[in-house]
Fold these 2 entries.
Entry 1:
Amino acid sequence: MVSYYHYVIVALAVISATLLAIFLFSRRRLYLLSYALPGPTTLIPLVGNLGSFFMHRKNVFQFFDRIVAKFPQTFRFWFGPKLIVVSSDPAVLDKISKSAAFEYVDVFDSNQKETDERWRMHKKLIRPLINVKFAIDNIATFQEHGRICTTLLEKHLNNKEFDVHQYLFPCFLDIYGEILCGKVIGCQNGRNRNLIWAMETVLKLRDIERAFRWLHLWSLYKMTDHYKQSNDAREMLSYFIQNVIRKSWQRRKLDVFGENKTGATPLVDRIAEFVENNRKAMRNEEFRDYLLKIYIEASSTSALIASYVCVCFGMYPECQVRAATEIRANLGEDLQNLKYENLYKLKYLEMCILEATRLVPKSCFTIRTFTESVDLGDDVTLPEDCPILIPNYWMNRSESYQKPDHFYPNNFLPENVKWRKSGNESHGSGTHECIGRLLSMVGLKIIISQIVSRYRIEADGKFHDLRIGNPSYPKPSLHGFSLCLRD
Ligand code: HEM
């Protein structure tokens, strides 16, 4: 006998089937795209290739290494219900860098689309503030902290190997703390060590957080230890940066300089001046978020690249000798009173820095999401909101580079750069290009020159022996930036 419950069950089944059909129909363009592109075999759309991602985060890089090698220039994979397209096709990349219609995916922001639009607008105002004069004004600050770092390294002289990043990260936090935030941080002298922890935590967990958001599992993530850690780190950083801004207002009222001994005006005061004159143009929380973003980018990337250059100098001594000779010829033996003109002449060192950024880009992937559908050619359309991953790390190993898996600074000789189709993307391109290109080059040249002119670096192996762990904060996962210092 057919009861009332049977009708209810049938009605529920029909409603569920209809909802599922509507859901699948609304995503039809994703399925068509998935069908048109090669990629790993998927089971069911909701699970996708998620099974392949159950691994320790130290192994994520190796996983991508395998799939990028296996598939052609443009391929897809399903991260749970999220379709992701990976592309290193120059025609696709051209569309990305030229199109204004994309959204920057950043897990720090709640309303990503609006935040991104406003950041791009404000970036036009902030970028000119970090100019050549700003770099020249701050040479003494780089020099002073580089001197402290070189002195601290003394205890490792003719001793066993150690991780140089543990010295360089505090060094750059101190430098950019003064230059950007107008605050003496003192990490190198053992103060504010929780700042190092907070920054590393945020950088380390960035990928995991993005993954949980994509899978709509944020509520689940909130129950994990990771969330607690990253929340503590964010609160700490937010408190720190608010304090920096408050002090800047006070300072400006009293008309005094930042804590920077050189008397150069820190970036925070320059932005504060703009905000004061255009009250409605930038919200207080935007000011806070931008300054934090710039401080994190500046110190973490500079420390990463400086550490890679040092380790590579140890692994490729012939490059170290050439750089040291150039440094001595242009900056003298004692590196006193450094001048911008002399730093500018360090062309070989500049090539070494660019080569390190080629081997290890700031982030192994760049992630972009268009806000409208884009024709990728060959009857393939990328629907809006479908993330596209640009595999920077792997693209930087194309045949247009000589010895692609080695540290080979000659890749950046002018005659070799000239014929390469894509320019130097070490600092990004398009609307999200780095705002610290020039400043970072000046800073890195000073710090590396100080270390190389005082010590001879030794490191085991060659570049490919370093195993990279986390693709969005690419440090060597096995022994860190291990090297020895000799007289
Ligand atoms: C060797 C040092 C550096 C390297 C290799 C580097 C590289 C990069 C790259 C590749 C991007 C683009 C990321 C993307 O396309 O999504 C970027 C963005 C950025 N960089 Fe740098 N950077 C360095 C130093 C600095 C410094 C010193 C500052 C600040 C003074 C800085 C501030 C920024 C900011 C704020 C962004 C975000 C731009 C945006 O989203 O519009 N960077 N950097």
Entry 2:
Amino acid sequence: MNDISELNDSNTPISLFKENVKMFVNKRNWIKYHTPKNLVQAINCEAGELSQLLLFKDYRKEDIWNDKKLLTNISDEIADVFIYLISLINLLDLDLSQAFEKKMEKNNKKYNTKEFNNGIYYKK
Ligand SMILES: [Mg+2]
């Protein structure tokens, strides 16, 4: 993997994440535990950890950015969700870019801007 300090969202292909997670899992012989059910549950557990950080709090973005420990914890939990999601994508041999493109096309039709705009539903 590239030096982590070199990575950012503009220069990192999804294939790099997929390969890195695959190597991490294989080196530890964890693939036997990575069933679809276990990975979906792991995604939910990590999403729960992310949710717990905000439970009964109503932070604004500025509050989070001014609390470096909270920002780090939120970033870590988002990464945990993403890592398990990538592992599930690897297991199922999915192409995330194709899945994204197809689903966004469905979302654009389902939530077209003539009917859905600024939180208001205009369909009669
Ligand atoms: Mg976690």
